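Section 3.1: Structural characterization of target chains.
Under the original work plan, the team committed to producing a structural model for every single-chain target entering the pipeline before any wet-lab resources were allocated. The record below documents one such target. The sequence was received from the expression subgroup and is listed exactly as submitted; it comprises 267 residues.
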Amino acid sequence: MLKFTNNAVFALDNYGIIVRIAGSEPVSAKARRGVDMARWLAEHGIPAVRLVEDFEQPIHVDGLAVTTWHQVPDEGAPVRPEDLGLLLRRLHAITEEATDLPRWDQLASIRARLAAATTLTTEEHVFLAEVADELEEELIGLEPLLQPGPLHGDAHTGNVIPGPDGPVLCDFDSAANGPREWDLTPIAVGHLRLTPPPDAYPRFVQAYGVDLTKWTGFPILRRLRELQLVTSALPVLAANPGLWPQWRLRFETLRAGDTTTRWKRNG
């Protein structure tokens, strides 16, 4: 097993195949869009992991989605911010919609986590739900910076593999048709809220060609990304008490409107 977050990822080394097994029913529900995005990327020649196309995917075992992929040997140079910038630039240059992908709706997954949360007080739940409602209204009037189209949906350097022929994109479970600005949001928010190397974001901007933080709509997507980072831990808080201190810091700074306190990664 290579890792287990939302999916359990196994390498079948003798066959050069990667197997991804969804870790829950909600993750299983996203597997189809991952397959559809992978095929769209292959059709347009975007460097990305490729499906094993010998049979229909995804398959389902005991109610969980399973997908298989050609293994990319992790033999290239370490992934750099500019690698992500260049890959997204190529992806976003394609204006044709991917007809099999759903419309982007980040708030739907956030609300689903809130609905299933068992660790929130009533006050905490009400606050987070109100933030989601406010953002829904603000997103309606958002003036786009980029032409909408297919987007990765969870674009960060952790979803880039340094292959022997160059870096490739992976993990398309959040792919959708919608605002491409969302693909630039994780690294921009990470630059301001987390603790990456100080030159990481400038290098990304130079490669991609756009500084999202200078866009008038950025504060809305920043707050949406931070709400996502707060709610993403909700399904596992009860089982992992070690996450509580960082979750509490994130929640309290979001509630206070504090945009300067740094958050820790993976906490």
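The mean pLDDT is 93.
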